[in-house]
Amino acid sequence: MELHAAPGNPGIAAVAKCHGGAEPLALAQTLGIELTVVGPEAPLADGIVDRFRAAGLAIMGPTQAAARLESSKSFAKDFFRRASIPTARYTLAANHAEALRAIKTFSLPVVLKADGLAAGKGVTIAHSTEEASEAAARLLAVSAPLVIEEFLVGEEVSFIALCDGERALPLEASQDHKTLLENGQGPNTGGMGAYTDGRILSAVEQGRVMDQVIEPALAGMRAEGCPFTGFLYAGLMMTPSGPRVLEFNARLGDPETQALMHRMAGDFTGPLEEAAHGRLTASSLEWRAEPSVCVVLAAYGYPGKPRPGDIIEGVDQAPADVFHAGTRASARGLETAGGRVLGVTARGETLREAIATAYRGVEAIHFEGMQYRCDIGAAGLKRWPA
Hints:
- It is a single chain.
- Helix 6 (96-103) packs antiparallel against helix 7 (129-140).
- By secondary structure, the protein is an alpha+beta fold.
- It has four domains: 4-62, Rossmann fold, CATH 3.40.50.20; 89-150, ATP-grasp fold, A domain (Dna Ligase, domain 1, 2-Layer Sandwich); 155-276, ATP-grasp fold, B domain (D-amino Acid Aminotransferase, Chain A, domain 1, 2-Layer Sandwich), CATH 3.30.470.20; 292-383, Glycinamide Ribonucleotide Synthetase, Chain A, domain 4 (Alpha-Beta Complex), CATH 3.90.600.
- Strands 11-14-17-21-18 form a five-stranded antiparallel β-sheet. It has a four-stranded antiparallel β-sheet with strand order 5-8-6-7, sandwiched between helices.
- It is globular.
- The chain has twelve helices and 21 strands.
- A hairpin with a 3-residue loop joins strand 9 and strand 10 (168-170).
């Protein structure tokens, strides 16, 4: 089996052939690719799945219409209501004046979300009316309408299911760390780290998520004429009243994927091919019992304007697996080339051991302005100290 990546990076180049400037559809046709798996959200929103299918090529991901669950927060919130999927109370605002009137109807803190794609950075939790007003103006400049919703209290969980339009195969639950700084401080990012542990959700809780969130979403999308295929990522708040959906993504999450792949024990290509062809038969996936942790190393300036071109040292010496994201090879060596640069990932017999190994990997790596959080997985240690 051959693996190709477009555009790829110096990390995946160790196991795949990279095609930097290639147009994906033309590349797949030229190489005779049997299955394409879409990683980023932008191509999904642009309709890459529709184009591949029109050309008769197998591809893993939702159509442009189905990808609106991620590409439009207003569409998703209205869909939750139509499909009776539990979520936070919300309202939509087309302009700043409407936003200010709506904000007054919510208790503080209040959550404001840009409608369109924002790479995980289009959400603000405002703790004052002034902060909410400023955030509304800023987010409305990005996209409209603005989603304003109540702040939910509970434990945040990432729940991803592989879907073929009718059936869903759940992956293990994980927990992302969205803010730049420890303890939920600082601006939102695309994710500064994640961990997965089989204890995050009980079997009963997982069943509720499937029954109340994933299955209604699949049924609702089918009823609206745009069946969802690919990875349905539900960002959840596990409240005392049960799961509430914060958002849907239409792809595997980053950095959840790094941690999840470390725990996957069996073959994944079979279920991927089945889902892409609309005939998912697997009832479950095989998982290792050991927890896994991914710590993101981000560039100077992230999540604002990340600085490229800083030399990265120590990757080969890290006692953990290092997944590349924003990197590039140059005459000077390995350089930063994006906001989130590397995902340092490790598995351990215990969560504490996995965390320790991942951070030993972090300590081996250096580049100027390197940013990372020191508390990835700490919430799990509070729940399970041993």
